[in-house]
Amino acid sequence: MMLGTSARFAGRNWFDNLKLAVYIGIICRQALACGQRGSGIMKAYGEPVPVDRLPRLNEYGADDLFVCCASFEERCISGTLRLGPGFRVRYSIVFVIEEPFYTKEVDSNLQKLQSQLSRYTAEGVYIIRCQRDNPAEAISQLKAVWSKCKPKDTDEPFITLDISGFTKIYLLQLLYFIVAEQNLGIPRIIHTTQAYTPTKLTRGVEQITTVANFFGTVSFEKQTLLILLLGFEPERSLSVWKHFNPSRTIALISNPPRDGQTDYLEYAQKNNAFLLAQPGVELRDVPPDDPYGVRNTLETIYHEVRDSFNVAIGPFGTKPQTVGVFLFCLEHPKVQVVYSYPTSYTRSYLQRQPGVTLLLPMSPAVGVDIRNREEEEE
Fold first, then answer.
1. Is residue 365 assigned to a domain?
2. Which member of 6, 29, 236, 279 has the lowest number of beta carbons within 10 Å of its beta carbon?
3. Strand pairing class (121-131; 202-210)
4. Does 364 have pLDDT greater than 80?
């Protein structure tokens, strides 16, 4: 059974703004900002760029916004440590996701973020404190200060988003606010990876919910296809699978894995072995750090099934993959996104060390006419 009710993306003329930002302005700025100025090196589409020193986007002055999140994970501060000597920004926004069991770690990382950002921020650093299971309240707080810190020129915003510390449900809601509600296009996105360990990262499931603004549309004449992006949280993805009891499931696992870690695929499949062994579950590959590659994979699946299935997606893989889910759902508001909250985090999760910081490849390989895609679905 599908969760929630019908809802469609809103926003004044944001289809046109999104296309313009993605296909013209943002593409050009990301190409300049990948740290390869004057080097003659061109990165292939779909290949994330390791960040050593991150320059500003605006060559004529300070950027508009730098947005990040203080969490209990050490990697949440890594992006700010990569800001180049010439980086300047008018405002910074730090979300603080409260974790009752990890208050010490969260507060310590918040202090480090504030200290680091104060060196690069000209006009102010805003702190938004919020509960883990209440992203709507966080976005409400953001809206309350938006008039003070919003970009000067909404037709050409200069925004950097560090997704490393956000939970996936927060990330989806934040992207929806920036892209769909504020019509600002896709921001520059950086992400710090973590050293992976071959054990599960969370225990238990507290609740299952449909992500706000991603309710989808349910046809009672159709069966349900569930698409699960899998990693090392088998209980969370399995709980969603049991809740939906779908007639068909497509499981997506990162392959090829990051940094040539050939044993990653074996361990990921082992962690999700029970789910993968169930009837009607099909396994496919998906890139770990290429949002448009994820979007294209989902597009291929959707083209196969859209006339005969309701489609729901559970994003339990990497955070760049969650960005890919967002990009896909921009074009297909009939698709539902569902999320489950873990009861607790394992010691393995807490001990993971930060890896490389990546600039995500946010330039599509080919142009996409969003309006035409929506008309095809009607």
1. no
2. 279
3. unpaired
4. no
Question: Tens of pLDDT along 230-243?
Answer: 988 889 899 999 99
CB 231 within 8 A of CB 258: no
Range of the domain at 347: 202-353
Could you tell me if 46 and 165 lie in one domain?
Answer: yes
Residues 161 and 208 placed together within one structural domain of the fold = no
Q: Tell me if 282 is assigned to some domain.
A: yes
At 322-332, the pLDDT tens digits run 999 999 999 99
Which residue from 328, 321, 362, 335 is spatially nearest to 168, judged by alpha carbons? 321
Same structural domain, 34 and 108: yes
If asked whether residues 188 and 208 sit together in one domain, one would say no
Least confident range from 89-98, 319-328, 369-378: namely 369-378
